[in-house]
Amino acid sequence: MRRGLVLEGGAMRGLFTAGIMDVMMENDITFDGVVGVSAGACFGCNYKSHQPGRVIRYNTQFARDPRYSGLRSWLKTGNVFNAEFAYHIVPTTYDLFDFDTYNSSAMEFHVVCTDVNTGQAVYHALPQMSHEGLEWIRASASLPLAARVVKIGEREMLDGGLADSVPLPYFQQLGYDRNIVILTRPPGYVKAPMGHARLLRWLLRKRPVVAHAMLNRHVLYNRQVAYAHSEAAAGRALVLQPEQDLGIPHVCHDAALMRHVYETGRELAERRLPEVRAFLDL
Question: What is the pLDDT of residue 278?
Fold first, then answer.
């Protein structure tokens, strides 16, 4: 049996995911591998470095810091979440990422990005964390128009959710046969088509593949979520998701709201911990 943890994105909704992960780490719930998309990649790497509490700590600490995120960063750099400060300075200077624990862990960690020239998902394993590894995570979470394209080697990439928001099939193909899937939308949520299609195509006129992916994302997303639930019904996956809308915007400067979303994840995880243990045969 190979145990996997599949983490969708959702920007600050990912704090719900962080709450679940922290409870699982605190209760010695182990996985053979984790795959994260967007915020799921940003926050999920802390499972391999075994740092419960880190996600909520640095997000609330820098919630109102213009160096971290916001309009000023977007106007100056083209990135709402500052590429250098948020992804490189914070983990190496202010709230230290445990590179040694991450690099010595046998747990696999994978990220999902989208190739802006093909529109296809790019799946990448990060056995060791480094400056380039942090760039892969940044690419996975770089939303079109809110962030610049991230170039690593010959690839140009943006947010992984454009191509694969719930990469359960990818992990199953790698041999992960018992997967916990954490979603950040409540049961019954159906993603609607994006509005203002003509404006979006104009804004992304130099990146038509990205525009096409954004305008068709709802089709892929709804199909991917439905697949996760069908696998759960068949006993091959366990889906954890909020019971109602989390009510937090993509960019949030309200530390109290952040903590509320995080605690919502913790409460659900504590309540369903016996179910998690039974499913993973722990």
Answer: 97
